Structures are given as C-alpha cells and as structure tokens.
Amino acid sequence: MSSTKPKAVKHTLFVKFKDDVTREQIEKIVNDFTHLVNQVEPLKSIHWGTNLGIHDLNFGYTHAFETTFEDVEGLQEYLDSPIVNKFAEGFLPTMAQQFVMDYELY
Known about the structure:
It comes from Salix purpurea (Purple osier willow). By secondary structure, this protein is of the alpha+beta class. It contains three helices and four strands; from the N terminus they run E-H-E-E-H-H-E. The chain has helices at residues 23-35, 72-80, 82-91, and strands at residues 8-17, 45-50, 63-69, 95-105.
C-alpha cells in the first residue's frame, strides 16, 4: 500500500445482463444510475460505457459503471444509502453476473 494519499476511491461494476432484459430496461437503469450523482452526496461522479469488443477477455460482461468518491468512508456511505439500496432493488434482478472492484486511485 502506498504512503501517498489517494486522489480518489473508485467503485467499478461490470455487468452481464440477463438475456431477457430489454434495451429499454437497460436504458432506464443507466438513466437512473447516472442520476444518483445528484441524489447521494458522497458520490462525486459516474461514468459508464459498453464493451467495445476489441479483446475476447470480457467474459460476457457488456457494461461498466465507474463511480468516484473522495475516500473509502464516502464509498461506504454510498453503499449504505437508502437511495442506492432502492435503486439496487430494481437493478440487481436484471443481472446475470456482476463483478465489482473497489480501489484507491493514485
């Protein structure tokens, strides 16, 4: 671990949606997810994108969602937020698989 203070904390989620999830459902999820930045104070930014398909190393994951926080405490506050938990109630059932990585950015 570095003795340098991290610039930020990232929470990155990779998602493979279930086969029966429609494009419209995914668009609503993305829209709702991006609006969390205005609703959950410790959340500083959200970026998302879809797999470009350049490498065959994506294991079927199609979407990435990257959230940014000032520190680990902000990430934990986000994870514990009733607003985020309500959003997750609709998001989690659409996922066939997910992979999450939390890390400090130096």
